[in-house]
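FAQ: What does a ligand-bound record look like?

Like this one, built around iron/sulfur cluster:
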Amino acid sequence: MSDEKPLLKVTIDGVQIEVPEGTTILNAARQVGGNIVPPAMCYYSKLKGSGGKCRTCLVKVSKGSEKDPRPMPKLVPSCSTTVMDGMEVLNTTSPEVLEARKGVVEFLLINHPLDCPVCDQAGECHLQDLGFEHGGAHTRYEEDRRTFERIDIGPYIQLHMNRCILCYRCVFAAEQLTNGRVHGVINRGDHAEISTYIQQAIDGDFYGNIIDVCPVGALTDKTFRFKSRVWFTKPMDAHRDCDKCSGKTAVWVAGNDVLRVTGRKDAYGEVEEFICNTCRFDKKSLSDWTIEGPRHIDRHSVIGMNHYELAAPKETQYLTNKIIE
Ligand code: SF4
Ligand code: FES
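The answer part, i.e. the structure of the complex:
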């Protein structure tokens, strides 16, 4: 007898998929892609334990399973609810889900400042996209927002706690990628904040990845701060021989300058591989890299317009020539 477990059938917004047991609704939806995929602000597939914090991914389970077809009584977080055989899920086809998501956006924006015009994350900020797609036009919040002083976390990263939505991604990234984590969430409720506690620097070869996993502009790269709006730079796939990571990155170029280096992100804004600090912070010259060509940004946003690709052949040739020179 084969050990292979039968696949489970799940229908999301009318689209049926078969997935292995243990798959979450969110990951089942990601196998199809497009509009049926719920947004996710705290789940990050490469970080163990992430998810279940932000409630952006709420969906309605209108049929629990083939064996027990009763609907689930409340909306459920799709990032942490696993599918059952015969389950039926509503995402964008449920007015109740859309209304709840609007409420979640409003809640996330209660303390988040509207400083997109001066924030380095603008143009690739998940909260900006979420607010645009699901948010209301006005805020009903009349209280003072929480404000914090900016904090330097080591020489390369600045924390703007005002912008943090407490998704915990950076906490998981620091815990799973660095030795001796010294940062986390201190206090609870309205007083909760990301902190390095007594303001220590985070250490280790991979701590720069907390910038890439942050869905908003709370953790910013000090080597890139205020250098350019991201949509004025051209992302290129590039690689180098690196003894710490795969060396496969995206370099964001303006003219002959590499303004920043990040991991290569997929359609959900998640990096394909975590990269080391040397590649991210120290290799800011075109001659450090072998340019492979323009990176196509699948995530729909202002940089997802991919305008730079129109000039791709010439640009790529130009960059390659510069490196050979
Ligand atoms: S700093 Fe960014 S990654 Fe960390 S909890 Fe806040 S929003 Fe999430
Ligand atoms: S992505 Fe599911 S709760 Fe945040």
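Follow-up question: can I read anything off the structure? Yes, for example: The chain has three domains: 8-103, 116-138+145-221, 230-324.
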